[in-house]
Amino acid sequence: MDTIRIGELTVNRMGFGAMRICGPNVWGPPRDRAAAHEVLRRAIELGVNFFDTADSYGPHVDEDMIAEALHPYPKGLVIATKGGLLRPRPGAWDPDGRPEHLKRALEGSLKRLKLERIDLYQLHAPDSKVPFADSVGALAEGQRAGKIRHVGLSNVSVRQLEEARRICPIVSVQNRYNLGDRSSEDVLKACEQLGIAFLPWYPLGAGETIKQEKIKVIARKRKATSAQVALAWLLAKSPVMVPIPGTADLKHLEQNVAAARMALSAEDLAALN
Hints:
Elements: E1 3-6, E2 9-12, E3 16-17, H1 33-45, E4 50-52, H2 61-70, E5 78-83, E6 85-86, E7 94-95, H3 99-113, E8 118-123, H4 132-144, E9 148-154, H5 158-165, E10 170-174, H6 185-194, E11 197-198, H7 213-222, H8 226-237, H9 250-258, H10 266-272
Parallel strand pairs: 3-4, 4-5, 5-8, 8-9, 9-10, 10-11
Antiparallel strand pairs: 1-2, 6-7
């Protein structure tokens, strides 16, 4: 599996998005806690050493589950989490970028994950009611205090990335991106130029992207799943791309990780692009 540097950390380029191990609609605990633990542990066995989560997944359930299943953490495992979204009810994702909230969110994540320092802490989303610089400044303060190793952003524009970089070093951006939704192409290009990791969320378009006929054709030809083709395309698309597909299913997990070893031909890439 290819590797990439995220700040001073080296991780394998196929990560794991832990959001799906929560209950339905990313709310509450999973129906089968033991099965969720098994998925997390199996990801480690398959060589995944980059896990992405957030305090809003559950809320709080996801971080608790990761600690339950994996703590004490194996050497080399990088856990990235996020703060800045509230979940007052299922289906609600309300931005809260106030510095005082982000400080509390960071403390909560440290406690749930049983860490003294979080390797990658990301602002989950800009809050239109709070100056962006104030939100990023709160993460920079956490970094100076030794509670955050590296700072990342999520759901941002190129302008916001530039603004954040004037406040503190930024090592990653997590925006929605997949074969069917390339609206963050300009952000991806900026990350390439800066040598910043790009973490595409919804790398499979919540299952919609892989329904495209052009993906199915290549999947049949390669005797692979459509999801594997879509993930392999992401890896080929950019050297800074770190897909983080999520699943609560062991078989799907194994298939997703196997996509990291799948090399699409120039003909395949031309058909997909």
